[in-house]
């Protein structure tokens, strides 16, 4: 199949990167081409972010558990990211969710468009966080779904193809939910708090999943797979499909650093909500995704956050003279609405909660 000029691609397909890739356009559409300051630089050696062995925290002897807990504290405070191994989620389950996700993305466009992501929402198939015709688009197709509690689900947006999609996602999400609760227990302990502190506080926690498919791009130096952002969640769990290209980059010491995946590990990052609750001790970190010229990439991301009804603010035990109160109290549902109705711009959405003047909480 010969390359075609972009003008000949049907208008309804211009923001679907799989269709663009299939058409092999001679140039990258302007809508995807980033300004010079935003373009990915030449790749550097992949960074090995801290690796936490969950089995040592749960089953290790006292010394092993203490060492791993100290490592977890450093990971959250200095990195905002870590990879977790021996997390207890069966490898077959990881491969199963990857399989159904990839099968969905490989369906004909007409089938995927039965589950459209409406403008201003973050459920369904399409491009999220797009609010203007002039906004640059990410080189990525997404399927985003609310999972828990049940009232946040939109059943019409859960694909019926492949046939086992919903069943697989249900089982996978239940395992990830349990993992988040376990991790939050140890994160609380790393702050010298009661291990149930966060889980008790969160109530009926909100859980959502987003599946991202990044096709190869002929000019990966011009585009971004996913714009720089921090997450509005408390915890985010990232699964990078086996065999995918390296795509995750984190902002570390003002440099964009590629993250080298550890086989069968899950990447965990601190979200804005935990930054607020810890009064900035544990920070959400800006991250982005880049593309590859020849390889595609699939990732499955779970966002875990408090109930929408919960009022959040810095915990009193983490406010002192050395770390004065940095954030105001707010309703988590209000912040969630603020987050999903603004485009991804680094950590700008967290300005919603920041105290601009030196006031007490």
TrEMBL record:
InterPro entries attached to this UniProt entry: DIOX_N, IPNS-like_FE2OG_OXY, IPNS-like_sf, Oxoglu/Fe-dep_dioxygenase_dom, Plant_2OG-oxidoreductases
One GO biological process term: morphine biosynthetic process
One Pfam match: DIOX_N
Cofactor(s) the protein needs: Fe cation
Residues annotated as domain Fe2OG dioxygenase: 204-306
Record-stated family: Belongs to the iron/ascorbate-dependent oxidoreductase family.
Name the UniProt record assigns to this protein: Fe2OG dioxygenase domain-containing protein
